[in-house]
Design brief:
The chain has about 250 residues and is of the alpha/beta class. Helix content is about 30%, strand content about 25%. It has one domain: UDP N-Acetylglucosamine Acyltransferase, domain 1 (3 Solenoid). It is found in: Mitochondrion membrane.
Length: about 250
Amino acid sequence: MATSIAARISRKAVASAFSAHRHVISSRCFATEAAKAISPSSDQVKWDYRGQRKIIPLGQWVPKVAVDAYVAPNVVLAGQVTVYDGASVWNGCVLRGDLNKISVGFCSNVQERCVIHAAWSSPTGLPAETTIERFVTIGAYSLLRSCTIEPECIIGQHSILMEGSLVETHSILEAGSVVPPGRRIPTCELWAGNPARFVRALTHEETLEIPKLAVAINDLSKEHFSEFLPCSTVYLEVEKLKKSLGITI
């Protein structure tokens, strides 16, 4: 009786030990297969994800950011986007250049939560690119699509500029303005409303204040810029140049 009980206990112990050993082997095999599954392929495009910002390449198009431009950490730049010297793109903005080019000119600023996009083509026959030239201020929560803003303009908060619209130099759009497709805002004028309508002509003194606002925001962006490591896409061009010249460092 005691012998049979001991034999039964030993069989159970052997069975449990074998089961545990098999579980360990299967876990190791699964871990090995999982490691193989997630290991990066040699054909995979290598990209630098440093967590400071979302710079998203699309096909052959890679967003370009100047060395002294400030782009906030949670901004999304995708595709054909160029941010020039001294420009600033503030928190929460999305610049999506998947269909056409987007450029933010020298010392211009795109403030919080703006969305900038560009269509394949403009129904008005005008250029479908979204161009923001130098010393332009884009107010927060604005939406720009395939429009052109000439130098030294102010676009008020919550404004919408549709395809083919043109804002000529030294002009101001009041907050909440909606510019329909193909509409032209003449130089040195103040427009407002939905749809945007002429309000009055700007004085010479008012036009002189427009670039000063852009410079003041540029100065403020430098304080924010100093909190982050200098990070732009210029190093990609340097790497290409080094590779073409056969330089290895």
